[in-house]
């Protein structure tokens, strides 16, 4: 099967907050789950939960409540990053597209 590029597939689509937020939320949630799994498999001194605890208020190691709070907060961090990043990206990308004027006032 051969993939052909079209004009629309080569253009960049604008960043959308929900798309980026869900992508980042998923990434952070998967990372959190992998770290929890890692912590269950390795000796105590190698566990990473001490790194998560200050970043995830309410997180407690090896409690269902702490696990769920950590999972929700990890996903929420993805939304936080997207809500802050996308408007900044759009603003800077828009500034890059503004026409440059020479000293003589001609574009």
Biggest β-sheet strands, sense, barrel: none
Radius of gyration: 21 Å
Taking all residues together, what is the mean pLDDT? 84
Q: What is the succession of H and E elements?
A: HHHH
What is the terminal-to-terminal distance? 47 Å
Tally of strands: 0
**Percent of residues in helices:** 55-70%
> Which shape, going by the Cα principal axes?
elongated
Q: What is the percentage of strand-forming residues?
A: under 5%
Poorly predicted regions are none
Count of separate DSSP helical elements = 4
Structural class: mainly alpha
Write the layout of secondary structure elements.
Blueprint: H1 7-10, H2 17-41, H3 49-52, H4 64-97
Describe this entry's structure for a reader.
With 107 residues, the protein is an all-alpha fold. It has a domain at 22-94. It is 63% helix and 0% strand. The protein has 4 helices and no strands.
């Amino acid at each position: 099967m051969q993939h052909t590029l079209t004009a629309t597939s080569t253009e960049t689509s604008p960043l959308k907050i929900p798309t980026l937020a869900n992508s980042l939320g998923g990434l952070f949630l998967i990372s959190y789950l992998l770290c929890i799994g890692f912590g269950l498999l390795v000796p105590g001194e190698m566990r990473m939960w001490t790194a998560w605890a200050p970043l995830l208020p309410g997180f407690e190691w090896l409690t269902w409540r702490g696990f769920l709070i950590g999972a929700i907060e990890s996903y929420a961090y993805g939304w936080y990053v997207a809500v802050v990043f996308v408007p900044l990206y759009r603003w800077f990308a828009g500034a890059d597209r503004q026409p440059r004027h020479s000293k003589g006032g001609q574009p």
